[in-house]
Design goal:
CATH class of one domain: Alpha Beta
Distance between the termini: 11 Å
CATH architecture of one domain: Alpha-Beta Barrel
Keywords: FAD, Flavoprotein, Oxidoreductase
Strand content: 5-15%
Number of helices: 9
Order of helices and strands: HEHEHEHEHEHHHEH
Largest sheet: 6 strands, parallel
Helix content: 40-55%
CATH topology of one domain: TIM Barrel
Number of strands: 6
Radius of gyration: 18 Å
Catalytic activity: (6S)-5-methyl-5,6,7,8-tetrahydrofolate + NAD(+) = (6R)-5,10-methylene-5,6,7,8-tetrahydrofolate + NADH + H(+)
Cofactor: FAD
Structural class: alpha/beta
Pathway: One-carbon metabolism; tetrahydrofolate interconversion; Amino-acid biosynthesis; L-methionine biosynthesis via de novo pathway
Protein name: Methylenetetrahydrofolate reductase
Strand order of the largest sheet: 1-2-3-4-5-6
Length: 226
């Protein structure tokens, strides 16, 4: 992140509860402040296999609260949101209340898990507004580069691949060009609909494959933002 900052781009480091202690987070925050970084993403994170406890901070709201106590309003803090609900949530309302706790702790905005169902995002925004939540909630976008990878990621994180999209991708087998072309059509249509509905921006999960993301924002007529 410091290299990105030195190149003149806006950096948004991700801080996770996993394995973190107050001292380690405090040290990181001081380093970021010294380099003029003012944007953070605070996450609970996923426990590695065999790890029983995440660390001192159990949930993202505890991490957000600590950052605010240590640094005041220095950082703009983003947190995660789940339009299709977190796979470990006991109920949709429990998941919404967990999200609200992160905002009540001091988060400024949110980035969602990726999704392909526009209605899931629209319904989630309606439910948030009903709870009095009015922060920017930026939809997460996952370009489609590989069906097998996408299916594996989606099964792990609870993101639904609509049946018609899944069946179409399955039909292409190992035809990467067709998968990319179809994926670009699906995702660019979703992005256009989100922006037209008033979404505050788009957050692309590039997975270090920038080409598809570049094509998407060119199709949409967007300017790049780091």
């Amino acid at each position: 992140m410091l290299e990105i900052q030195r190149e003149g781009h806006q950096a948004a480091p991700h801080l996770s509860c996993i394995g973190s202690t107050p001292d380690s987070i405090r040290s990181i925050l001081k380093q970021y402040q010294a380099h003029g970084i003012r944007h953070l993403v605070a996450l609970r994170g996923d426990l590695p296999s065999g790890m029983a406890r995440p660390g001192t901070f159990r949930y993202a709201n505890e991490l957000v609260e600590f950052i605010r106590a240590e640094t005041g309003d220095w950082f703009h803090i983003e947190v995660a949101a789940y339009p299709e609900y977190h796979p470990q949530a006991k109920s949709p309302m429990e998941d919404l209340l967990a999200f609200k706790r992160k905002l009540d702790a001091g988060a400024n905005s949110a980035i969602t898990q990726y999704f392909y169902n526009f209605d899931a995002y629209a319904h989630f925004i309606d439910e948030c507004q009903a709870l009095g939540i009015d922060v920017p909630i930026v939809p997460g976008i996952m370009p489609i580069s590989s069906y097998s990878s996408l299916a594996r990621f989606s099964d792990n994180c609870g993101a639904e691949i609509p049946r018609w999209v899944r069946k179409k991708l399955e039909s292409y087998g190992d035809d990467t060009l067709s998968i990319h072309a179809f994926g670009l059509d699906v995702v660019s249509s979703l992005c256009a609909k989100l922006l037209a509905s008033g979404a505050p921006g788009l957050h692309f999960y590039t997975l270090n494959q920038v080409e598809l993301t570049t094509t998407l924002w060119q199709r949409l007529g967007l300017s790049r933002r780091y």
